[in-house]
Write a structure and sequence with these properties.
2 copies of one chain form a homodimer. Chain A is mainly alpha-helical. The first copy, chain A, is built from 6 helices and 3 strands; from the N terminus they run ααβααββαα. The first copy, chain A, has a single domain, classed as Orthogonal Bundle (Arc Repressor Mutant, subunit A). In chain A, a hairpin with a 5-residue loop joins strand 2 and strand 3. In chain A, helix 2 packs across helix 5. Chains A and B meet through helix 1, helix 2, helix 5 and helix 6 of A and helix 1, helix 2, helix 5 and helix 6 of B. Chain B binds a DNA duplex through helix 4. Chains A, B: It holds the Pfam family HxlR. Chains A, B: Keywords: DNA-binding, Transcription, Transcription regulation. Chains A, B: InterPro entries: HTH_HxlR (IPR002577), WH-like_DNA-bd_sf (IPR036388), WH_DNA-bd_sf (IPR036390).
Chain lengths: ~130, ~130
DNA sequence: CAGGATCCCCAATGATACTG
DNA sequence: CAGTATCATTGGGGATCCTG
């Protein structure tokens, strides 16, 4: 069971911020991509993750690095070369996130069915 | 392996939206709370989840209901009584999300350590 | 009690340009 | 290449009031 001192349901517990980094829009994609590929450069991540801006990628990577999820390795060469990979802690987090991805992929038909039925129910009751 | 037709790394794939609902700020808290408690009323959820507004709770619950994650049962009484619980699909999702919560709780010391070290590294290099 | 409707605003996000 | 700095935008999100 979880420590009583770390309560993510408490608005002011710092764990809430970490949870938000882990589950953030770009954070989840970065984690899963790094879990699959092992190590990627900044520009590789940018290309792999559709729609992410440089700013958001850099910002999200920094948050994840600070939380100990992502490892950042700078190779002192010109032009610059920076590698990103998951820490041990990050791998554990990424695996959980990846479970969500698999769930969506594996049971996609159920998601679509639920959405269609919901929309039909809504459309059927004007007021 | 996952269907090639469901690619969350593709900006325009509808699965991206579902992933964002599942991992949204309030979505993760709702899922875990319902996983723990089974069934809760609107006001119970509101009280259980620190800092959520009525608007965001209603809005997030609707998104999760549409995706087939949350089951909404209305009891036709006065005053109104509405129960929320997880569907089978929702339970699978919630378990994955709960893994993240446990990770944060169990390894919180590592998160804090990483943050402190990151901040020290930053402070050590003025420019 | 469960939410719908409104108003409002700040912060997250993105586009662009620039630098080591 | 790997970012940082700046600026513009908007819509997420909250507060409030109202209703079945």
């Amino acid at each position: 069971m979880e420590s009583a001192l770390v309560d993510v349901f408490d608005m002011n517990c710092p764990s809430r911020a970490v949870m938000e980094h882990l589950s953030s829009r770009w954070g989840v994609l970065i984690q899963v991509m790094l879990l699959r590929e092992g190590t990627l450069r900044f520009s590789e991540l940018r290309r792999a993750i559709g729609g992410v801006s440089e700013k958001m990628l850099a910002q999200t990577l920094q948050a994840l690095e600070r939380d100990g999820i992502v490892r950042r390795v700078v190779h002192p060469v010109i032009p610059p070369h920076v590698d990103y990979s998951l820490t041990d802690l990050g791998e554990a987090a990424a695996k959980a996130v990846n479970t969500l991805f698999d769930l969506i992929g594996d049971r996609w038909a159920e998601f679509e069915k639920a959405q269609v039925e919901y929309d039909q129910r809504k459309a059927a009751q004007p007021l």
